[in-house]
Design goal:
The complex is a heterodimer of chains A (143) and B (146). With 143 residues, chain A is of the alpha/beta class. Chain A is built from 6 helices and 5 strands; from the N terminus they run αβαββαβααβα. Chain A has a 5-stranded parallel sheet, with helices on both faces. The model of chain B has no long low-confidence stretch (mean pLDDT 90). Chain B has helices at residues 3-10, 34-47, 104-114, 142-145; strands at 21-24, 27-33, 51-59, 64-72, 77-85, 92-94, 117-119. A 5-stranded mixed sheet of chain B has the order 1-2-5-4-3. The chains are: A alpha/beta (143), B alpha/beta (146). The interface between A and B is small, with 5 and 9 residues.
């Protein structure tokens, strides 16, 4: 295991990107950080800049307006990074499939930017905080 | 004002509307032509002191319908002004923002996705479509969806 991966898994700092979510998944992400679940005890910390982040938490379907911004955020994230797709929308566009403003699913957008991106999927509408934490644990044990 | 009195007040504008349709106890439709919608809405808002709820737009087969929904809260009655815009090539209607600034954003949204031109709107800029969305493409029109 390279030291980069080791340090990534030690304490993943996350940056939250909303690309057209209804806010429900965002609320569940915030819920993970509140005292009941408190993911900071695992070293998972929400940071304010993608340059400080090891992982991106992407919510939302990937709208036309958000696509260049998401790619820019991904480019600025320090590599290696993990992209977590939180919710049914980024995983497979969900009920917004074929909408006129939908460019998603988000994994397609990320792969256009970087074909070797590490992408983890947490489906659900919205996923429970337990599911998000479980997804993070599974993704970090897989890499 | 009770329901009967409300019906009587609505008779004051009966030359501007094609009908006063009461479908249920608490739902009244006022179908009218596009050029009369401004006056009818103004009457509801200023003379009857109705509350503006929302405006919606429908792409019907032969026309566009712009629907202004007002609520008469004392009776719990929702009154809808249904304006028919017959010109499908250049659909236009008088904006109601001059006396009802709250309608500004919903009219901008309808302009975005249906291509209705709201005359005398103070700020008819793009609201919800992406910055790179092509001009003249209106995604919620039936033509665009097929």
């Amino acid at each position: 295991m390279s030291w980069k991966i080791w340090s990534l898994k030690k304490s993943p700092w996350v940056f939250h990107v909303n690309v057209g979510a209804c806010n429900n998944c965002d609320i569940e992400i915030v819920n993970c950080l509140t005292p009941k679940f408190d993911v900071e005890r695992f070293g998972i910390k929400l940071v304010g800049s993608p340059r400080h982040a090891d992982a991106l938490l992407v919510t939302g379907v990937g709208t036309r307006q958000a696509v260049p911004r998401l790619k820019e955020v991904y480019r600025q994230t320090s590599k290696p990074c993990v992209v977590f797709l939180i919710g049914a929308c980024p995983c497979g566009t969900g009920i917004f499939h074929n909408g006129y403003h939908v460019e998603g699913p988000v994994d397609k957008i990320i792969k256009e930017e970087d074909p070797n991106a590490i992408i983890a999927y947490v489906p659900g509408c919205p996923p429970k905080p337990e599911a998000i934490i479980s997804g993070v644990v599974k993704a970090l044990s897989a890499i | 004002m009770n329901r009967e009195e409300l019906q009587n007040r609505l008779q004051e504008i009966k030359n501007k509307v094609t009908a006063v349709e009461q479908t249920t106890d608490n739902r009244i439709y006022l179908p009218c032509e596009a050029q009369n919608a401004y006056a009818v809405s103004k009457f509801l808002f200023q003379d009857l002191a109705c509350r503006f709820v929302i405006a919606t737009c429908v792409d019907s087969d032969d026309c566009f319908e712009v629907l202004y929904h007002f609520s008469y809260d004392q009776l719990g009655v929702v009154i809808t002004v249904k304006a028919f815009i017959r010109d499908r090539e250049n659909p236009a209607i008088e904006s109601i923002t001059s006396f009802l600034p709250a309608a500004e954003w919903i009219e901008r949204e309808m302009h975005d996705i249906m291509g209705i031109d709201f005359r005398n709107h103070p700020n008819l800029r793009r609201l919800i479509l992406a910055d790179d969305w092509p001009d003249g493409v209106y995604p919620e029109r039936k033509q665009a969806r097929t």
